């Protein structure tokens, strides 16, 4: 039988010094009915995703001058699908939202409301990704939250030059439409080539 | 069954990094949105998906390339009921800007701190608190590790590490006895014997003999009589205590250290307390169990190390795992001069029979009744109360039979439980007795 060694008792070498106690961080959790335990961090991430959808829909509303009220029901989708943040559900409803932008705005038009819509889109994407990175009861430390906010802001900054360029070129016929097609599609192809999985992920 | 041994540290490779749903979402929405924007001449749609394209590229370019190894280390593999230790989880190497989550699965009789069992890795390390609420050998929940890279684009895990194992020693109940242990025979104990020799108990003052220690010289008497006199003492001796623990039944709801004890909780904690008392008095002690399988056999021993062995053996008890045990092996080869303490709730008739057998051999036997009173105080269930009443009537007759044979049965009350009965035994031992010739 293994015999544990007795633990030496620490002897005080000097008079006790006044030390600053580390504040105890209380992690609060909530229950929704009989469901699992949710941390306030996770609830906050879900609310941020909901806010992103709300900003996107508000931008779309202002850009198009109004749409059917049923579209506002999409605001609730992140709340309903908070359990499936790591699944394809967010892809489906964000695809639906982008499709709504496509069909509700006229071709060849440009609206500066696309900038807040881009902010809502990237915030919704980041909040959902952060929520999927931890179990429902998991919390996020302040440095983690700050890092995600910083990354989201930097990614959003990429939308500004695109918007400025689109604003400058809106309504002008530069005769470069075929070239733009080639450049755009080539960029998409390069992007897809870069993010390809190498080697491809094998199916289980 | 493989031999049990505590598992202090476990390590496992976490596997390869794989793209997440978030990364695939950014790629699909970014690429499809850009294509649709170009083809459909929606410049504002291109603006909207531009951050997603950046997120997809950023997440891909910043993905970790190295394989990560996770390690979990238990602060202590042996600790007492109610005490807290830590599980330290580290990853090596620790990629920059990686968000890591450590989970500790729920395990019986283990409280996690935080209660959700989920903590975040900070600089590649995290610590969870673990509190064991009941004695025994058990696994300390499964540790799982999951890591996600920048933008949640790539993920490794959650991967479960091999289980950590620990032993929780019973917290001995408070116990003290001022009465001497009967039949001291050894040479290192604290019990007074009837033989003169080196010790602390005063015997008499006698003439100096060659070999006597000079510090024993009694100078006032020597000066008065003109010849050297010394103080003589009774020798101190150690006794042999034999503990027989009933593992046949574990009555009552198992609520751990914070709730009401079961009958086996009381038995084990009482055995620990009695062992601690006698071993600190330098007495020799033997522990045997009846009704439990896979309990290692413990020999005679004394001292602090033997106390640790006794508590380890008590922690290895699994109740009612050997119902066919007759106890014959447990009482084989017992020192005839040993003080036999039978700890039992006296529910299983085997233990009553063993107490009769030991008493029939002429040994000094004391039965310590460890039946918890709170089991029969609940009067809400009429049928259960009636069942207990019938069972206790039967039990009373068995206790009465033991007393008729001269075996004292004392309820376990903590400190002083055995004082009166040990004094009675000492008095009985010094009294004249009738012998069969």
UniProtKB/TrEMBL annotation, chain A:
Provide the alphabetized UniProt keywords. Membrane, Transmembrane, Transmembrane helix
Query: Is Secreted a UniProt keyword of this protein?
Result: no
Pro residues composition bias: which ranges?
Answer: 1-15
- Mark the transmembrane ranges: 43-62, 74-104, 110-132, 153-170, 176-195
Region of interest called Disordered, as start-end residue ranges on this chain: 1-23
The protein's name in its UniProt record: Integral membrane protein
Query: What species is given as this protein's source?
Result: Terrabacter tumescens
From TrEMBL, chain B:
What ranges does the record give for the region Disordered, renumbered to this chain? 183-203
For the DUF58 domain, which residue ranges apply? 205-368
InterPro entries assigned to the protein according to its UniProt record, in alphabetical order = DUF58 (IPR002881)
* Amino acid composition bias (Polar residues), ranges on this chain: 191-203
Q: Which PANTHER family match?
A: BLL2464 PROTEIN, POSSIBLE CONSERVED SECRETED PROTEIN
Q: What protein am I looking at?
A: DUF58 domain-containing protein
Show the taxonomic lineage: Bacteria, Bacillati, Actinomycetota, Actinomycetes, Micrococcales
């Amino acid at each position: 039988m293994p015999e544990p060694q007795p633990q030496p008792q620490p002897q005080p070498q000097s008079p006790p010094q006044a030390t600053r106690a580390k504040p105890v961080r209380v992690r609060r959790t909530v229950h929704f009915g009989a469901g699992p335990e949710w941390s306030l961090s996770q609830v906050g991430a879900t609310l941020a995703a909901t806010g992103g959808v709300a900003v996107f829909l508000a931008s779309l509303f202002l850009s198009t001058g109004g749409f059917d009220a049923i579209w506002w029901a999409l605001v609730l989708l992140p709340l309903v699908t908070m359990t499936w943040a790591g699944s394809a559900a967010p892809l489906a409803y964000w695809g639906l939202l982008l499709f709504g932008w496509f069909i509700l705005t006229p071709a060849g038009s440009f609206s500066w409301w696309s900038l807040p819509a881009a902010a809502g889109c990237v915030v919704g994407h980041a909040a959902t990704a952060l929520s999927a990175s931890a179990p429902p009861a998991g919390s996020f430390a302040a440095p983690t939250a700050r890092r995600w906010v910083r990354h989201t802001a930097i990614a959003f900054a990429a939308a500004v030059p695109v918007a400025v360029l689109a604003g400058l070129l809106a309504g002008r016929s530069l005769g470069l439409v075929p070239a733009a097609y080639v450049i755009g599609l080539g960029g998409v192809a390069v992007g897809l080539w870069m993010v390809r999985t190498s080697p491809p992920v094998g199916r289980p | 069954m493989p031999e049990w041994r505590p598992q202090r540290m476990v390590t496992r490779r976490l596997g390869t990094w794989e793209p997440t749903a978030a990364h695939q979402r950014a790629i699909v929405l970014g690429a499809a949105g850009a294509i649709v924007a170009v083809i459909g001449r929606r410049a504002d749609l291109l603006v909207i998906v531009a951050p997603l394209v950046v997120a997809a590229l950023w997440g891909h370019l910043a993905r970790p390339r190295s394989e990560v190894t996770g390690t979990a280390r238990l602060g202590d593999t042996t600790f007492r009921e109610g005490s807290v230790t830590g599980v330290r989880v580290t990853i090596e190497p620790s990629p920059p800007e990686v968000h890591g989550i450590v989970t500790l699965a729920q395990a019986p009789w283990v409280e996690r701190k935080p209660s959700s069992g989920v903590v975040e890795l900070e600089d590649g390390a995290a610590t969870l608190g673990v509190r064991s609420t009941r004695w025994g050998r058990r696994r300390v929940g499964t540790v799982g590790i999951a890591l996600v890279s920048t933008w949640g684009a790539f993920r490794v895990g959650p991967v479960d590490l091999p289980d950590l194992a620990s032993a929780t020693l019973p917290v001995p109940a408070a116990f003290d006895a001022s009465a001497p242990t009967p039949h001291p025979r050894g040479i290192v104990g604290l019990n007074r014997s009837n033989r003169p020799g080196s010790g602390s108990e005063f015997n008499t003052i006698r003439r100096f003999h060659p070999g006597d220690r000079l510090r024993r010289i009694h100078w006032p008497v020597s000066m008065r009589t003109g010849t050297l006199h010394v103080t003589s003492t009774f020798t101190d001796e150690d006794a042999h205590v034999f503990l027989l623990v009933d593992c046949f039944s574990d009555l009552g709801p198992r609520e751990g250290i914070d709730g009401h004890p079961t009958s086996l909780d009381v038995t084990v904690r009482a055995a620990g307390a009695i062992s601690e008392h006698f071993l600190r008095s330098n007495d020799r002690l033997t522990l045997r169990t009846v009704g439990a399988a896979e309990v290692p056999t413990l020999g005679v021993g004394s001292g602090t190390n033997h106390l640790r062995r006794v508590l380890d053996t008590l922690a290895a008890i699994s109740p009612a795992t050997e119902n066919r045990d007759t106890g014959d092996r447990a009482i084989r080869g017992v020192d005839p001069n040993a003080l036999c303490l039978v700890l039992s709730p006296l529910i299983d008739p085997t233990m009553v029979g063993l107490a009769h057998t030991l008493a029939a051999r002429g040994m000094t036997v004391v039965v310590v009744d460890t039946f918890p009173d709170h089991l029969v105080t609940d009067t809400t269930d009429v049928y259960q109360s009636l069942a207990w009443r019938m069972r206790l009537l039967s039990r009373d007759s068995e206790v009465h039979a033991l007393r008729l044979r001269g075996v004292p049965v004392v309820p376990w009350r903590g400190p002083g439980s055995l004082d009166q009965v040990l004094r009675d035994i000492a008095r009985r031992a010094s009294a004249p007795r009738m012998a069969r010739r």
